[in-house]
Protein backbone atom coordinates (compact mmCIF):
# COMPACT_ATOMS: atom_id res chain seq x y z
CA UNK A 1 0.00 0.00 0.00
CA UNK A 2 2.92 2.35 0.72
CA UNK A 3 4.11 2.08 -2.89
CA UNK A 4 0.65 3.04 -4.20
CA UNK A 5 0.67 6.15 -1.99
CA UNK A 6 4.12 7.11 -3.29
CA UNK A 7 2.86 6.84 -6.88
CA UNK A 8 0.12 9.40 -6.32
CA UNK A 9 0.66 12.72 -8.00
CA UNK A 10 0.34 16.12 -6.36
CA UNK A 11 -1.98 18.35 -8.37
CA UNK A 12 -1.25 21.88 -9.44
CA UNK A 13 -4.02 24.40 -8.74
CA UNK A 14 -5.06 24.88 -12.36
CA UNK A 15 -5.04 21.14 -12.94
CA UNK A 16 -7.30 20.56 -9.96
CA UNK A 17 -9.76 23.15 -11.27
CA UNK A 18 -9.84 21.36 -14.62
CA UNK A 19 -10.43 17.98 -12.95
CA UNK A 20 -13.24 19.35 -10.77
CA UNK A 21 -14.97 20.98 -13.73
CA UNK A 22 -14.65 17.78 -15.78
CA UNK A 23 -16.01 15.66 -12.93
CA UNK A 24 -19.03 17.96 -12.53
CA UNK A 25 -19.65 17.70 -16.27
CA UNK A 26 -20.70 14.10 -15.52
CA UNK A 27 -23.31 15.36 -13.06
CA UNK A 28 -23.76 17.08 -9.69
CA UNK A 29 -21.73 15.71 -6.76
CA UNK A 30 -20.82 16.54 -3.20
CA UNK A 31 -17.19 17.17 -2.30
CA UNK A 32 -16.36 13.60 -1.30
CA UNK A 33 -18.03 12.35 -4.51
CA UNK A 34 -15.85 14.69 -6.59
CA UNK A 35 -12.72 13.47 -4.82
CA UNK A 36 -13.72 9.82 -5.26
CA UNK A 37 -14.55 10.29 -8.96
CA UNK A 38 -11.12 11.83 -9.62
CA UNK A 39 -9.43 9.03 -7.70
CA UNK A 40 -11.43 6.28 -9.43
CA UNK A 41 -11.10 7.67 -12.97
CA UNK A 42 -7.34 8.10 -12.50
CA UNK A 43 -6.83 4.49 -11.44
CA UNK A 44 -6.07 5.57 -7.85
CA UNK A 45 -3.18 7.76 -9.05
CA UNK A 46 -4.70 11.18 -8.34
CA UNK A 47 -5.71 11.78 -4.74
CA UNK A 48 -7.34 15.10 -3.84
CA UNK A 49 -7.03 16.00 -0.18
CA UNK A 50 -9.83 17.97 1.47
CA UNK A 51 -7.31 20.73 2.24
CA UNK A 52 -7.00 21.29 -1.51
CA UNK A 53 -10.48 20.32 -2.68
CA UNK A 54 -12.67 22.63 -0.63
CA UNK A 55 -10.66 25.83 -1.24
CA UNK A 56 -10.79 24.99 -4.98
CA UNK A 57 -14.56 24.41 -4.83
CA UNK A 58 -15.07 27.75 -3.05
CA UNK A 59 -12.84 29.51 -5.60
CA UNK A 60 -14.75 27.97 -8.53
CA UNK A 61 -18.04 28.95 -6.90
CA UNK A 62 -16.86 32.57 -6.48
CA UNK A 63 -16.01 32.60 -10.19
CA UNK A 64 -19.55 31.32 -10.95
CA UNK A 65 -18.16 28.27 -12.76
CA UNK A 66 -19.98 26.01 -10.32
CA UNK A 67 -23.04 26.44 -8.12
CA UNK A 68 -23.83 24.68 -4.87
CA UNK A 69 -26.86 23.89 -2.75
CA UNK A 70 -27.47 22.00 0.46
CA UNK A 71 -29.20 18.63 0.11
CA UNK A 72 -29.78 15.55 2.22
CA UNK A 73 -27.64 12.55 1.28
CA UNK A 74 -28.73 8.91 1.04
CA UNK A 75 -27.59 8.38 4.64
CA UNK A 76 -29.58 11.40 5.88
CA UNK A 77 -26.68 13.84 6.22
CA UNK A 78 -26.64 17.41 4.98
CA UNK A 79 -24.19 17.74 2.10
CA UNK A 80 -23.29 20.56 -0.23
CA UNK A 81 -23.88 19.42 -3.81
CA UNK A 82 -21.98 21.16 -6.60
CA UNK A 83 -22.99 21.43 -10.24
CA UNK A 84 -21.41 22.91 -13.34
CA UNK A 85 -22.86 26.22 -14.59
CA UNK A 86 -23.03 27.43 -18.20
CA UNK A 87 -20.01 29.65 -17.50
CA UNK A 88 -18.27 26.60 -16.04
CA UNK A 89 -18.89 24.60 -19.21
CA UNK A 90 -17.29 27.39 -21.25
CA UNK A 91 -14.35 27.50 -18.84
CA UNK A 92 -13.97 23.71 -19.03
CA UNK A 93 -13.75 23.92 -22.82
CA UNK A 94 -11.11 26.64 -22.54
CA UNK A 95 -9.13 24.71 -19.89
CA UNK A 96 -9.20 21.52 -21.96
CA UNK A 97 -7.82 23.45 -24.96
CA UNK A 98 -5.03 24.89 -22.80
CA UNK A 99 -4.32 21.41 -21.41
CA UNK A 100 -3.93 20.03 -24.96
CA UNK A 101 -1.46 22.81 -25.79
CA UNK A 102 0.49 22.08 -22.62
CA UNK A 103 0.63 18.36 -23.44
CA UNK A 104 1.94 19.13 -26.94
CA UNK A 105 4.53 21.52 -25.53
CA UNK A 106 5.66 18.97 -22.94
CA UNK A 107 5.93 16.27 -25.62
CA UNK A 108 8.07 18.63 -27.70
CA UNK A 109 10.51 19.01 -24.85
CA UNK A 110 10.47 15.40 -23.64
CA UNK A 111 10.61 13.81 -27.09
CA UNK A 112 12.05 16.42 -29.49
CA UNK A 113 12.96 13.82 -32.13
CA UNK A 114 9.30 12.83 -32.53
CA UNK A 115 8.17 16.47 -32.86
CA UNK A 116 10.94 17.18 -35.39
CA UNK A 117 9.89 14.15 -37.44
CA UNK A 118 6.34 15.48 -37.67
CA UNK A 119 7.40 18.80 -39.13
Lay out the secondary structure.
Elements (H helix, E strand, L loop, with lengths): L1 H6 L5 H13 L3 E2 H11 L8 H13 L3 E7 L5 E7 L1 H25 L1 H7 L1
Antiparallel strand pairs: 1-3, 2-3
Question: What's the quick description here?
Answer:
With 119 residues, this protein is α+β, with helices and mostly antiparallel strands. Helices cover 63% and strands 13% of the residues. It has a single domain (2-118), classed as Arc Repressor Mutant, subunit A.
Uncertain regions spanning at least 5 consecutive residues: none
Widest β-sheet, arrangement of strands = 1-3-2
Classified by CATH, the class is Mainly Alpha
Overall mean pLDDT = 88
**Which second-level CATH architecture applies?**
Orthogonal Bundle
Number of domains as seen in the coordinates: 1
Largest sheet: 3 strands, antiparallel
The CATH superfamily appears as: Winged helix-like DNA-binding domain superfamily/Winged helix DNA-binding domain
Helix content: 55-70%
- Helix count equals 6
Secondary-structure class: alpha+beta
The total strand number stands at: 3
The proportion of residues in beta strands is 5-15%
What is the N-to-C succession of helices and strands?
HHEHHEEHH
CATH fold field value: Arc Repressor Mutant, subunit A
Amino acid sequence: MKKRYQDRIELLQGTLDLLILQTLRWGPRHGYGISEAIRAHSGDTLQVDTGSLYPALHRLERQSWIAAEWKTSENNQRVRVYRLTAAGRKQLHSERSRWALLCDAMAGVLEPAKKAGEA
